[in-house]
Write a structure and sequence with these properties.
The protein has 255 residues and is an alpha/beta fold. The chain is 46% helix and 15% strand. The protein has a 7-stranded parallel sheet with strand order 3-2-1-4-5-6-7, sandwiched between helices. The chain is globular and about 45 Å long.
């Protein structure tokens, strides 16, 4: 497919995991891709390895999405290189899990800053170019944890906030030709969930097996599952869809 030929996609947290899989998906479908990550060297390596189609380009950009100056500089670099901005995926994230009584204020601020403030800053910077074009699509990454998750008060609050943010932006930006949706992943096998397993004293493979058994489709999610959902929501195939949250969880939230 070539749904994104001539378009430019920006993926935050794009150097690995879900972000990398999504960057690869957009590249295969014809987009020029800007990989934005806190570690610019990792972003550059991922960008250099993308399966680009003829005429498309890639750029690795280092940015701290929780800082306005860093975000403005990153978006400016992307626009200077490619001349437009069609898709933004707000995927940058991290976890600092703990029960409420043990959670330091710094861990609350860090998680909220990267997930929620980061989505705000990136969207604010990107939408200026989208408004000028009269078109664009933003896909925010929420989580099934938005429904509540023990030991994740900071992460759950941030991901629930992403959903309200998504619906609000859809109402504000729709008249400007910009659609805004969210994907809410369930358990996805990534370095992040492997680290969670080790923190809990469980081997990653066993952790994946247990989560697969608890999921109706009897497997864990893969980064490519989120990439597919994101590409759909950002494409013209979803041209009449905005303000929605798509749970990509293998049925984990059905009951």
């Amino acid at each position: 497919m070539d749904r994104f030929t001539g378009r430019v996609a920006v993926i935050t947290g794009g150097a690995r995991g879900i972000g990398r899989a999504t960057a690869e998906r957009f590249a295969r479908e014809g987009a020029s891709v800007a990989v934005v990550d806190l570690d610019e060297a990792s972003a550059a390596r991922t960008a250099a390895e993308l399966p680009l189609t003829e005429g498309a380009g890639a750029l690795g950009v280092g940015a701290d999405v929780s800082r306005a100056d860093s975000v403005e500089a990153a978006v400016a670099r992307v626009h200077e290189r490619f001349g437009r901005l069609d898709v933004l995926m707000n995927n940058a994230g991290l976890i600092r899990d703990n029960l409420l009584f043990k959670m330091p204020e710094s861990d609350w601020d860090l998680v909220m800053g990267v997930h929620l403030k980061g989505a705000f800053l990136m969207s604010k910077a990107a939408q200026r170019h989208m408004v000028e074009q009269g078109s664009g699509a933003i896909v925010n990454v929420s989580s099934t944890s938005a429904l509540g998750s023990r030991g994740q008060a900071n992460y759950s609050a941030a991901k629930a906030g992403i959903q309200g943010f998504t619906r609000t932006l859809a109402a504000e930006l729709g008249p400007k030709g910009i659609r805004v949706n969210a994907v809410a992943p369930g358990f996805i096998a990534t370095e992040m969930t492997d680290a969670t397993a080790r923190r809990l004293g469980v081997e990653p493979e066993e952790f994946r097996r247990l989560n697969a058994e608890a999921t109706p489709v009897r497997r864990v999610g893969r980064p490519e599952d989120i990439a597919s959902a994101t590409a759909y929501l950002a494409s013209d195939d979803a041209g009449f869809i905005t303000g929605q949250v798509l749970y990509v969880d293998g049925g984990a939230t059905v009951g």
